[in-house]
Here is the input.
Amino acid sequence: MAADPIHQFQITKLFTLGHIGGQEIAFTNSSAYMFGAVAIISLLMIGGSAGRQLVPGRIQSMAELSYEFVASTIRSTAGSEGMKFFPLIFSLFMFICVSNLIGIIPYTFTISTHLIVTAALALVVFFTVLIYGFYKNGLKFLKIFVPSGIPIYILPLVMFIEILTFFLRPVSHSVRLFANMLAGHIALKVFAGFVAMLGVSLGAIGWVGGVLPLGLTVALTALELLVAFLQAYVFAILTCIYLNDAIHPGH
Here is the structure.
């Protein structure tokens, strides 16, 4: 029987935390992997900063590379003023990257394959941009909806498009991450299940015939490792671009 490629995304209850308003509050496998990702990041950063050496070790090098990578991304997209948002952007990047990489390991769980998780992260970014934009610029923040140099006769149409795209940012921001991780894991499961199915149903001939899908599975795994990092990077750099609108409104 072929393996179900959707079963890997199932959320299961580990234990009950309590009840609020008649609703059960449960600790799930998704929650466990979130805590696991945070624990790994914390150990990496604490281990990298504790007992710093002139010639860095592996842990310190990884921590410093992570810091410099995110910091350079912020400076190149939002300027030096954007560094005030470094804790937020660094946390988002590391959380998504580590949780995606954990999900590559067989029989683990990828939290970003659930839209509610990616939507929550995207909404944090959206409301941060909105609140800080009005806090820093007041009503001048609305200049992001009025591009400069636009002829007056098409300005209403352009403003409508700008407003629509602004409020659709959380949708594209969350769905991009969710869809890429979901599709990649389904493809991996299908090809891996195809190899096992050939071996079980056709015996030795099936194992020989399974060489090609096995090679594709290995190639897809390597691609998923790249995608896991790239999706975290894309989420982070889009966050920087959106925050740049709050820091420097207008086009």
Summary: The longest strand covers residues 13-20. The CA atoms of residues 37 and 98 lie 6 Å apart.
